[in-house]
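Quick question, first post here. What does this chain look like in 3D?
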Amino acid sequence: MRLGVDVGGTFTDLVLHDESNGRVVQAKTPSTPEDQSIGVANGVKLICEKAGVDPKDISLILHGTTVATNAVLEGKGARVGLLVSEGFEYTLHLAKSWTPGPLFGWIVMDKPEPLASLKDTRGIPERMNARGEIVTPLDREKATALIDDLCSSGIEALTISLMHAYANPEHERALAEIVKERYPDIPVSLSSDILPEFREYDRAITTVMNDYVRPIMKRYLSRIEERLASEGLSSRLHIVRSDGGLMSANAASERPVHTVLSGPAGGVTSTVMIARRTGIRNLLAFDMGGTSTDVSVILDGEPTISRSTEVGSFPAKVPTLDVRSVGAGGGSIADVSELTNSLRVGPRSAGARPGPVSYGRGGTEPAVSDANVVLGYLPPVLLGGDMKLDVDGAREAVGRVGAQLDLGPEEAAQGILDIANEVMLGALRVITVQRGYDPRDFGIVAFGGAGPLHANAMAELLGCYPVVVPTNPGVLSALGFLEAEFKNEFVQTFIRSTKGMDADMVWTRFAELQDKAVEWLDAEEVPTGDRTIRYSLDLRYEQQGFEVTVEIDKATVEARGGLEGVIERFNELHEQLYGVRFHVPVELVALRVVATGATMPVKESIAAVEGSDLADALIETRPSFFKGEWVDTPNYDRAKIPPGVKVPGPAIIRQYDTTTVLLPDHYAELEPHGNLLIWPNSKDA
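> Answer (accepted):
Ran it through. C-alpha cells below.
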C-alpha cells in the first residue's frame, strides 16, 4: 500500500492505493498551518479508519510539502552565515543589478533584505579563475579566524559560495572541513554541491536559500516521522521535488531547496498521466484549491520543465515544473475597496482557520466558496456528509458586501466569481497566449477542491475544450505523488568553444556525471530495471547570454564520436524556437545527466456504476443561479452516472471530494477511463 499526502493551505488531501486490488481510498482533513505535521497525522489516522487497514500495512508515504516555500515567503527561515571570496561580500546585495522598470521603477522599488545578512557574511582570502586554476591560495589561518568569528555569533546554518567553485571545489571543501572539525553541529551547504554552475549570484542565492529553510525542513520531517511512528507507521517517507520527481526524506532535509514547488508538482504529474491515457495530448492543468490556483501546460503529453523559478522576491535555480500561481482560491476573501469603492477578490485568504463563513469555523468575511454557496453551486453538505455548510451565514456575509455596492446577494456573488475567474484567466493567458499557444488547441483538466466548480466557466472564456474532471479531482495532487518517479540532475559547467574542441573531453565528463547518477540511484535503492539515465548539453552561439538544451541519446554518448550531429541539432532547435540560425561558432556551456527511477503506476479499478440510466443518478433538484435567474437544477451523484450517457446542462455533479458545475449550453459524459468530459452543445451541432 502507498499513501500520497498533499498539504494545502486549507485542506490536507490523502490518497491510499492498494496495489493488490487497485482500490483507491481518499480523505480530506483541515490543514494545521501552525504545524503541518499535526494535519498529516490526523489525515493518516482518518484514511486508515476509512479504508479499514492497519497503518503498519502502508509501505511507502509520498509527501508534497510547502514548508520550504512558506519559510521564504513569510521570512521565517534560519539565520544563515555566508562565506564568499574576499571582495565579493556584497554578492547578494548587488544581485543582478536589476530593478523593476521602466523609467522610475527603481525609485519605488521595495528591495528585500537578502536571506543572509551582511553582518553574517565573511570574505575568505582565496581565488579561483573560471578554468578552476588557483589564483590566490587559501589562507587557512585567516579563514579559520573568520569562521570562528562567524560560527560563534549564533548562526543556525552556513553557506560556502566561492568564486568559480563550480570549476574547482577544492577551497570550498577545505573550508567545510574546518567548519566540521570546529563546529560539527552547524549544517553546511557548498555551492559546488547544490548548484555546480556558473553565474555567481544564482549559485549563491540558491545555496543560501537551501540553508535558510534547511533547519526548518529538518525539524518538520523529524516531527512528521515521530507523529507517524506514534500512529504505528514504520513506512519509508519520500518527499516530492519541484520537478515532479521523488527524493528520500533524508535527501530532502539536506537539500530542501529542491522542494520549493513541491506542492503543485503532483497535479502536473497526474495531468501528464491523464494526457497519455485519454489521448488528449495538449492540456492545461488547472488546480484551484482553497488558497491559490496553480496552472501549467502539458504539451504533446509532456510537462514543461524550467531551469529556475522564483520564491517571493528571490530566484532559485533548480529544476522545476513550470507552474504559475495566483492568489485566487475558494478561500479568497471578497471586500470593497475604500479608495475606489469597487469589488475586489483576494489575494487575502481565509485559509483553513477560520475559513469561509459557510464553513462555520468563525469566519466573518465572505470568500469565493461563500459565493458558490449563495448561487446554489455548492450543496449544503460536503465530504459525503462530514461537513455541513452554513448557507444562511454565507448569504448574509455576501449580502453585506453587495449592499455597499447597491447589489443583491445573487448579483454580488456572481461578481465575486467573475472577478476570481478573471484573475485565474490571467494566469492561463500567461502560460498560453503570451508563449504563442492558442488556448483553443488545449483541453483543461480541473482539479483541486474548487477546480471543477470554475473550470467550465474558464473553458467558456478561453475556448479550451474538453474540460476534463478526473475521477478523484479533489485529491489529484496527492494521487500524482503516487505516480511520481525518483529523479535527480547532475550538472557540470564546462564553457568551451566547440570549434576545434576534442569531443572526448565531453564524453569523459559525461562518464563522470553518469557515475554520480548511478551512485545516487544506488543510495535511493532504485532497482536496476527501473533506472533511466538521460544526457543533454547546454549550447549557445558565442556571445549569447542564454542557452538551449539539446538532448543526446545514449548511443551517441557511448559511441564517443564527433559533435557535428549535436551542433546541427542545436541549430535546428534555435531556428525552431527563435526563427533564425546564425553562422557563428557554437559554445558549450554545461553538461547535464538526469537519473530517474520508475515507480509502480497507479492502476485504478473503475467502480461499477450502480444506475442504468441518468434518472438513477439524480440526488435532488435544487435552485441554482444561471444567466441572471434562478433555475431548478438537477444534482447528480457522479458515481451513478452511466458511461456514455450525456448529462445536459445546467447541472450540478456531486462527489466526495469536489462538486462540478455544468453550465447551460454544455453537456458532460464519462469516457472509458472514468474521466468526466464537458463539451459545448455546439460541438455536436
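The mean pLDDT is 88.
The chain has five domains: 2-72+225-259, 75-216, 281-465, 486-597, 614-684.
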